[in-house]
Amino acid sequence: MADAHDRRTFLKLVGGASCAAGAAMIGVPVATAFLSPLGKDSVIGASGFLPTISADAIPADGSPVSVAIVVPRPRDAWSALPPTEVGTVFLRREQERIIAMSTICPHLGCKVDEDAANKRFRCPCHDSDFDLAGAVLTGPSPRGLDRLETRVVDGIVEVEYVRFKTGTPNKVLA
Amino acid sequence: MIKRLLDEVDLRVGYRTFLRGAADAPVRGGASWAYVLGTTTVVLFLVLLVTGIALAIFYSPSSTDAWASIVYIEREIPLGALLRAIHLHAHSALVITAFLHLVRVVLWGAYKAPREATHITGLILLVLITVFSLTGYLLPFDQNAFWATKVRMGIVGGAPVVGELQTRILLGGNDIGNLSLTRFYALHTMVLPLMFMALVALHLVFFRRHGATPRPKTSDADAERATERYWPKQAAFDGVAALIVIVLVLAVSSHHPAPLEAPADPAAAYIARPEWYFLFLFQLLKYFHGALDVVGKVVAPTVAMLFLAALPFLDRAPVRRLAARRGVLGVFAVGLLGMAVLASLAVRADARDPALAQQRVRAEREATRAKLIAKDGVPVEGATFMAANDPLIRGERVFWAECASCHPLEGVEPRKVKAPDLTSYRSKAWLRQVLRDPDSRRLFGATKVHGMKPLTEASEAELARLVEYLHALRGTPAPTAHAAGVEALLEKFECAKCHDFEDDYGLDGPALLDYGAERWVRNVVENAGADHLYGKPNTMPKFMGRLSGRDITAVVAFLMSLEDRSAVGLWPNVDEPAPTPRVVPTSTAAESGG
């Protein structure tokens, strides 16, 4: 009787272990696929400074212009795309310097518009207002508009286009 | 603690009753290894389901992106290539287990009353298994997928009256394109799995109602007496069998990746072949011509399926002993034998087909090249566009279409060799051969361009210096004879008597200014008979005006690449006999598939 009991236990073990082993063997590549490509960027846009407009085209009176950021050959997983607009920035003169500000609202990522009549920037989603230097005037935005690095090469303003995390009081690269 | 928790759960959902129902299910005749085929088939289906879902989260069913997304899976996803291989080979394994299951059912008479419904649902499942494969075959959207599906649509479209309607519905239009891929994808990943699962459930309900059919020799009364519960013995058998099959599938998958040819291209003909389990049907197609062709396409497979479906009604006596059912079993055996013979004939014919062997080499090279350039991203115009416009892929296609009828290349010889062998063209070995023996059968001996004196009395060192010089002429700037220190040699062997090394001036031989450079090769392709090239004796057609500028650029790029191809047939030393040609191309590649 003990023999029969042992035999049953053995069979139960074999049945259970086979299922577990089979599931694990198939499970590993499947789970890996589900978690991929975690460590890698799948959509690759800008890197480094990208050319925008001629420095002469930026008004001397300090009013802002909105310009498109064009990435020459962005990647999206397996696709290599033609030159594509990936966003816009505000350019304006601040004394002698040319500054660039991201148009991505630091609150939740909506697009910030220029409110020329009131000489300010305005996010239409949750009513955050910013002055022309980018500082928060009113509304929920946790920080001012994000400044981007600029330089002028052969008269053309180049901007280093990066994105920052939204919702945080400090600028943190996204 | 855990037990109390489970008690509480069970009180609410009653899972124990459910599990006990499954565990205590009676196995008529007792647990047996012969009963594992059904469960193993279901386990393989589950493997296909989960690997299929994992592939689906990357796959893109569109004619521009499908191929590229598969390359992405293979290159960027860890174990992605293995995943594809498992999905492919698990289906082959499932075809085998399902088929063996059917063989057992027929041998043991398991289809007999009252199990007709079980039998017929099983046969429908078998049909679904083949439809899974037909729909899945298109999805990688490579050359094989495209051309095999073309042939299959030809078969479907050949049906009387409804043919056209059928292909339009299947393809989602008049030809293979985006709508065919979305349709095949939806069928393959949604419609068929749902149908399959529903039918498996039904099959199991019917099976549970009547129980397993014991061995033919075992009487029903004996079988009842020997009945055991499913858990644990039969469960252990099933588990071990499934594990063995999974291990086998993994072993095969890690050694044989799923193939991926160059992207589908309607403009580049390809000899497609079906999966191994359809080879018998494919072979059958070869025997029925003209009006009879419907026999191979439709009648024979339909009759076979109807015969299987009709078994319970043909073989009605309750007796299940083999000896008492010789007629039915004989027909079945003849059918199996026929399938095996047809499949092996197909394999034999393909193994002996030189056109197929040649295509295999070229297809592999195209595939490797296409995957390599896809690394930099596939353009929005799609993978087909990308491959068709790659100079090397396009150039090689142009070469085989336009040049290979006269020029041998890498062991492939035309029926009548009329031009120099271009294997490792422009390499030092090739140049050396031209100097040593320009009129050999593998060089200008095959043409009407003659008259160059072979440098038979040149020493190895002299030959090497001349080869070095000729090889350097393609450079910018090209070295002068003086700078290269070969003035004396050119003098000694009277080279400059016939060849102009400083200008495009036509003497008796071709001018060798920038010899071997892109411009020189292009000039030969465009007009080899020009005065400064091979002149009057030349018989090579003028390809300028005959090929588009794009094709000329491509074929020139291809010719330029021949020097570095270490793959096949490097030029032998002059004293060695020419290699015997491996394959002889046929003029047109017949398109066929299953």
Textual characterization of the structure:
The complex is a heterodimer of chains A (174) and B (594). Helices cover 19% and strands 34% of the residues of chain A. Chain A has 174 residues and is α+β, with helices and mostly antiparallel strands. Chain A has two domains: 36 residues; 118 residues, 3-layer Sandwich (Rieske Iron-sulfur Protein), CATH 2.102.10. In chain A, the strands form four sheets. Chain A has a four-stranded antiparallel sheet, with no helix packed on it. A four-stranded antiparallel sheet of chain A has the order 8-9-10-11, with no helix packed on it. In chain A, strand 10 and strand 11 form a beta hairpin. Chain A is elongated, with a radius of gyration of 27 Å. The N and C termini of chain A lie far apart (67 Å). With 594 residues, chain B is mainly α. Chain B has two domains: 351 residues, Cytochrome Bc1 Complex, Chain C; 205 residues, no CATH class. In chain B, 37% of the residues are buried. The C terminus of chain B is likely disordered. Chains A and B meet through helix 1 and strand 5 of A and helix 3, helix 4, helix 5, helix 11 and strand 3 of B. Strand 5 of chain A pairs parallel with strand 3 of chain B, so a sheet runs across the interface.
Number of helices of chain B: 23
What is the second-level CATH architecture of the largest domain in chain A?
3-layer Sandwich
Shape of chain B: elongated
- What is the number of E strands of chain B? 3
Low-confidence stretches of chain B: 567-594
Over the alpha carbons, how many angstroms does the gyration radius of chain A reach? 27 Å
Please indicate the count of domains of chain B.
2
Number of alpha- plus pi-helical segments of chain A: 1
What CATH calls the topology of the largest domain in chain A is: Rieske Iron-sulfur Protein
Q: Which CATH class of the largest domain in chain B?
A: Mainly Alpha
CATH fold assignment of the largest domain in chain B = Cytochrome Bc1 Complex, Chain C
